[in-house]
Amino acid sequence: MKSMNGLERIKTALKLQEADRVPHFERVATSVREAILPGASEEDFIEHMDLDGIRFVDRTHSWDYEIFDESKHIKKDQWGGLVRYTTEDNPVPMDPAIKSEKDLDAYVPPDPDAPHRYEYLQRLVKRFKGERAIMVGLTDIFALGRENFLGDIGYFRAMVKNPDLIERVNEIILDYQLRYAKNCIELGADVLWINGDWAMTEKPMVSRQFTEKFLAPPLKKLVDFAHERGIPCVKHTDGNIWPIYDVILDTGIDGLHPIDPMAGMDIGEAKEKFGDRVCLCGNVSCAFSLVSGTVEEVKQETKEVIRKAGKGGGFICMSSNSIHSGVNPKNYVAMVEAIREYGSYPLALD
Amino acid sequence: MVSFEAITKAVTSGDGNLAYELTKSALDADVSPNDILDKGLIPGLQEVGDQFESGDFFLPELIVAGDAVSKALELLDPILGKEGAATKGKFLIGTVKGDIHDLGKNIVIMMLKGNGWKVTDLGVDISPDEFCTAVAEGDYDVLGLSSLLTMTMPNAAQTIEALKAKGLRDKIKVMVGGAPTKAEWAQKIGADAHAKDGPSAARVAAELIANA
Fold first, then answer.
1. d(Cα B135, Cα B124) in Å, to the nearest integer?
2. Which partner for B26 in A248, A257, B31, B163 could form a disulfide, CB atoms 3.0-4.6 Å apart?
3. Does the beta-carbon distance from B150 to A203 stay under 8 Å?
4. Quick check: ipTM above 0.90?
5. What is the CATH number of the domain that holds B168?
6. What is the extent of the structural domain holding A275?
């Protein structure tokens, strides 16, 4: 088979076909990157590891923040809520923007067209366009509404007691996200990567009925919008999504990440049940093997994941969430080496 | 005549106004506040917890049920306080160092309060020393350590070690929980119990006290 570049590999997998080899990319925590290639920028690291794509998230590379309490590492995000910075690269929501309907009546959303939001994307386009997949991470409408707008408790309460509030919040966020997505696509994004959990380890956060009513419709609108412009979408959600996976797939997404093994999601079973409908992205454990396993254990797990999910294509081999700061850098390198060793098509693993 | 079953049903259906009105009517009819709690409100939360564990209820239903109990407790708390009624116990809780996720912790608190516990919430990102200070200064029955991230789980173990080092371990029962945690791990790090979610936390805490 003709050798492909990273962009071709990712796009081929998202079309549920076999590339020249199983594609791979990750979002890698700064500390892990530093341990592997000290002093390297994220972009240099991508080239050094020859990753097939680069993904960034709107929270860290596009949203505005202002300092709220410097000593406690607390900032106000662009939606009006408070977030706190920890040792991870992502800021974590701690106090929501909207506490009552009055707040929402007076709410002025941020401007998605502000040019500075796209500086990082433009840098990536200049360096990688046409060679590696440029994936723009958008925070899911449900996750953004829950974490940054109303807070978890406020959002779940409103789903039962005040569904109109949820609809209003969804509308505000969707309007922003569609405009943001449009700008990103016009600037050269290759894939939209929609972040935000819909499930916990044990089960989905909300019932199937609420998933269909509140979560799926705005996601479908985002996916349809991207598809009209020829751009595929990957949905990320941790947790056990067995009870709602069909609702998620019905939104038309092209890829599903990470098929959370800690939540009992077996990627072989996923391949069998819906591998013909969506590209599977996952699921080498970043809760266990990548953190505390041996290099050999990581290689074996990676090989096993490829064996279960790689056949026929439609598979991107990744960790089960991200290469977070707790991952052993040697284990991440071992995972990448194993993908290269065992992931050439046609696979010879059975 | 107010029926406890009606109060229970108001909780399971998440109807805070009804739970409040029925509680008020019961108090007006001289029903003991402890009976309203033990025979009306707590069975409601237990039923919701059971349905959560069996997969019929999810987070929204759990939260509005907790709200309904909170609404009724607005009436009961001042009376129970005055009468010096016994609570189920005193619970100290916090999310371990490095972890500021608090959804799971907040649900645990809601379920504990609804089940008659007095809860002190230390908040998020709490160091072993801060937990030790609170344990030393307070008179708590159970300490709950919450951890959502694999990478912060070791900080739960460090907190237990710090309690031992300061001679405080025997003063309190320790429960751990959070999405990535397992019962085997809880046992390994020397915790007394593990709870996988909010409803089970209330049940496990009660068992810990009963077996103390």
1. 16
2. B31
3. no
4. yes
5. 3.40.50.280
6. 6-63+111-342
In B, which residues are within 8 Å of A161 by CB distance? 14, 64
Domain presence at residue A225: yes
**CB-based contact B103 A243, cutoff 8 Å:** no
B40 lies in the same domain as B101: no
Structure-token pair, residue B178? 């959070």
Looking at the structure, do residues B144 and B61 belong to the same domain, yes or no? no
Residues spanned by the domain of B195:
89-210
Are A14 and A254 in contact by the 8 Å Cβ rule? The answer is yes
Closest by Cβ to A160, choosing from B61, B179, B197: B61
Whether chain A has a CB inside 8 Å of the CB on B130: the answer is: no
Residue A151 Cα, gap to closest chain B Cα (Å): 9
B67 and A157 within 8 Å at the Cβ level: the answer is yes
Within this chain, do residues B79 and B99 fall inside the same structural domain, yes or no?
no
Q: How many CB pairs under 8 A join A and B?
A: 67
Residue of A85, A89, A146, A159 to mutate, testing the B interface (most B Cβ within 10 Å of its Cβ): A159
Does residue A85 form part of some domain?
no
Say if residues B7 and B44 touch (Cβ distance below 8 Å). yes
Query: Are the beta carbons of A157 and B60 separated by less than 8 Å?
Result: yes
Pairing of strands B142-146, B173-177: parallel
Number of domains composing chain B: 2
| Nearest neighbour of B63 by CB, restricted to A153, A243, A324 | A153
E strands in A126-220: 133-139, 191-195
Q: What is the pLDDT along chain A (350 residues), one digit of tens a residue?
A: 789 999 999 999 999 999 999 999 999 999 999 999 999 999 999 999 999 999 999 999 999 999 999 998 899 999 999 998 865 567 888 889 998 889 999 999 999 999 999 999 999 999 999 999 999 999 999 999 999 999 998 999 999 999 999 999 999 999 999 999 999 999 999 999 999 999 988 899 999 999 999 999 999 999 999 999 999 999 999 999 999 999 999 999 999 999 999 889 999 999 999 999 999 999 999 988 999 899 999 999 999 999 999 999 999 999 999 998 889 999 999 999 999 999 999 998 86
Both B117 and B21 in one domain: the answer is no
Q: Are residues B33 and B67 in the same domain?
A: yes
Query: Is residue A109 within 8 Å of A176, Cβ to Cβ?
Result: yes
For residues A150-165, one letter each, b for 16 or more C-beta atoms within 10 angstroms of the residue's C-beta and e for the rest, the string is bbbbbbbbbbbeeeeb
